[in-house]
Amino acid sequence: MNYNIYPLQFEPILKERIWGGTKLKSILNKPIISDITGESWEISTVEGDVSVVSNGVLAGKSLNELIDSYPEDILGTDVYKRFGKQFPLLFKYLDAREDLSIQVHPNDELAKKRHNSFGKTEMWYVLQADENARIIVGFKENSNANEYVENLKNKTLLTILDEVKVKKGDVFFLETGTVHAIGAGLVIAEIQQTSDITYRLYDFERVDSQGNSRELHVDLALEAINYNKIDTEKSYNTTLNQSNTVVNCPYFTTNFLPLDGKVEVNKTGNTFTVYMCVEGNFEIECNNTKFQYKKGDTILIPASLKAFILNGKASILEIYIS
Fold first, then answer.
1. What's the CATH number of domain 244-320, 2.30.42.10, 2.60.120.10, 2.60.120.200, 3.30.70.920?
2. Within the chain, what is the greatest distance between any pair of CA atoms?
3. What is d(CA 312, CA 212) in angstroms, rounded to the nearest whole number?
4. H or E element that contains 66
5. Per the confidence metrics, is the pTM higher than 0.90?
6. From 17, 97, 114, 200, the catalytic residue
7. What is the pLDDT of residues 162-189, one digit of tens each?
8. Could you say which architecture CATH assigns to the domain 13-234?
9. Annotated binding site for Zn(2+), which residues?
């Protein structure tokens, strides 16, 4: 690269959703202009929604342009070897004023066959939870396609699905095939494979302002669903100034880093790193320059930026590919 590489931030890509609200602004400082903003896509290369750099000398350039010009510098040697010039992850914040639809995502094999896409393994970190907020994840007991279809027909699907009450700091890891829904009253950080493939199973009989129901994908979902009871909640340590492993899967590793003071970071150049600031404020010091961050900020550390210092008082999600 012909300039000093630095931590990159991107313009948030804001999405109106029937279930969205205003907490992305009030809690995470996002520049929303609508009272039904459900998602802020923080780092994305989904077609039609490619992130654009918002800071420094690269401002205005898209993430795809940077990867195209400097694939190993941005992605890392191992990630480039494995994925080519594709950015393999998608980072979002979500505000659920109402329940999201009950949905499922296909695995890599099915998504490739049907949509020429990655599957969508994902994880949720709960940033804020109203009292009694809950999520729907998987089945209460092992089920099967017949039981699922029968309950869908009778509008009793909720009776066989598992509901879990959640609080701030809870983490859920959803492998492909897990039937799920984010419940009302939650703000969530979501880390997932780069994919926008969702099969909607049930939408609580909702209609939009024109009286239209949203499309359901009942048949497509049949083959995608894992009908077994599964444990999705992840417990993790919160040791200060250390990267505490939360999720370690083939698609991404996520650590929880409670920062209080200074931490020196040294990387290998094998992978990019992303930091999501879920509480507090901190700075990154590199190449004799300090970059300031606050709650709600998402930062991409290019792989070629191997040594830097974190300093501040913050809770940070640290994500990379191992």
1. 2.60.120.10
2. 64
3. 48
4. helix 63-69
5. yes
6. 200
7. 999 999 999 999 999 999 999 999 999 9
8. Sandwich (2.60)
9. 105, 122, 180
